[in-house]
């Protein structure tokens, strides 16, 4: 069994984060009238919130996959039949917090503070702010977003990952830790019909486990990572439910998925069926991707193993198509930078 993969620890962090943007709400009527013979009229009015219309318009331009990045990485780490993660994996909890920051960035909720002085600092030490406090519908994302939005000061990317992980000596912010993240993600996957809940006896105690109920999403996620890390050209295969062709930032999301699997030390689960040479090349390519996308602007550094040669070009195309927000992309690169600084063992 290869010792390749990534295991703790990450880079250092800097100072503060959270800003708010208010949203107005109002109501209006839509409907028609019927004039009766006696001259009276009946009007049927439907009240609506303009903010809802705004959200619908935004969603039509930016489609999100059914599963979040955190859920996809958790799926890769789960044992299919047993329904639990390896007891020896102490990396996944920290990586999941980084993926929460990534998911919020992809959904247009947070970005770097727009200050020209930020470029004097390393990406993980640059400050982030909330630019859209509307709910996402995902409990963990909404909880993290509320913390970022309500914090009186701006904190850095690495600060927020530490705080959400509970790794802080600041007693005033110890309550920022997101608790039971893995269990809550698993329950979310149960609600989405991907997992099911069972009780398993572990000698001295009973524990809830979550075996695979629908193997399709895990198979799709696994194939996407394998294609990224083993094929000469990376071509995404879509499905109508979990990862549609309308998904925004498809290639960049796939890159973050692979980087998240590296940081969570679960990439071995994806590559286990490959021969030694293919698996070794896949780990090399994963490290190349971590290196290539851990800084912004992204730079094409090629591939030493002739894998994913079209990746940089595809990312460039989708950034032009989905809208190139430099401040958002800096957040993406900053989290990948944190992942790349977790000690690598190859």
UniProtKB/TrEMBL annotation:
It is found in: Golgi apparatus membrane. Its main location: Golgi. The keyword Translocase does not apply. Keywords: Golgi apparatus, Lipid-binding, Membrane. It is a peripheral membrane protein. InterPro entries: GPP34-like (IPR008628), GPP34-like_sf (IPR038261). Residues 12-32 have a biased composition (Gly residues). One of its GO terms (biological process) is retrograde vesicle-mediated transport, Golgi to endoplasmic reticulum. GO terms for cellular component: cytosol; Golgi cisterna; Golgi membrane; trans-Golgi network. The keyword Plastid does not apply. Residues 1-54 are annotated as: Disordered. GO terms for molecular function: phosphatidylinositol-4-phosphate binding. Belongs to the GOLPH3/VPS74 family. This is Vacuolar protein sorting-associated protein 74. It comes from [Candida] arabinofermentans NRRL YB-2248.
């Amino acid at each position: 069994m290869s010792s390749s993969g990534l295991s703790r620890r990450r880079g250092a962090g800097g100072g503060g984060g959270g800003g708010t943007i208010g949203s107005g709400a109002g109501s209006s009527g839509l409907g028609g009238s019927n004039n009766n013979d006696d001259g009276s009229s009946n009007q049927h009015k439907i009240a609506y919130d303009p903010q809802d219309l705004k959200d619908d318009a935004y969603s039509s331009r930016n489609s999100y996959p059914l599963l979040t990045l955190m859920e996809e990485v958790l799926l890769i780490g789960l044992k299919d039949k047993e329904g639990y993660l390896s007891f020896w994996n102490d990396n996944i909890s920290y990586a999941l917090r980084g993926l929460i920051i990534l998911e919020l960035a992809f959904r247009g909720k947070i970005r770097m503070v727009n200050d020209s002085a930020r470029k004097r600092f390393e990406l993980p030490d640059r400050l982030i702010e909330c630019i859209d406090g509307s709910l996402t519908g995902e409990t963990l994302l909404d909880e993290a977003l509320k913390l970022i939005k309500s914090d009186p000061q701006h904190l850095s990317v690495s600060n927020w990952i530490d705080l959400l992980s509970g790794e802080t000596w600041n007693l005033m912010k110890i309550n920022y830790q997101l608790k039971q993240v893995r269990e809550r993600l698993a329950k979310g996957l149960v609600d989405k019909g991907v997992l099911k809940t069972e009780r398993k006896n572990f000698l001295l105690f009973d524990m809830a486990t979550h075996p695979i109920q629908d193997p399709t999403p895990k198979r799709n996620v696994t194939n996407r990572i394998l294609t990224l890390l083993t094929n000469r050209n990376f071509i995404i295969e879509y499905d109508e439910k979990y990862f549609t062709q309308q998904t925004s930032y498809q290639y960049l999301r796939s890159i973050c998925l692979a980087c998240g699997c590296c940081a969570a030390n679960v990439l071995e689960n994806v590559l286990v069926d490959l021969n030694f040479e293919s698996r070794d090349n896949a780990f090399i390519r994963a490290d190349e991707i971590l290196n290539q996308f851990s800084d912004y602007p992204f730079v094409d550094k090629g591939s030493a193993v002739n894998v994913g040669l079209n990746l940089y070009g595809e990312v460039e195309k989708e950034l032009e198509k989905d809208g190139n927000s430099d401040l958002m992309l800096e957040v993406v690169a900053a989290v990948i930078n944190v992942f790349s600084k977790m000690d690598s063992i190859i």
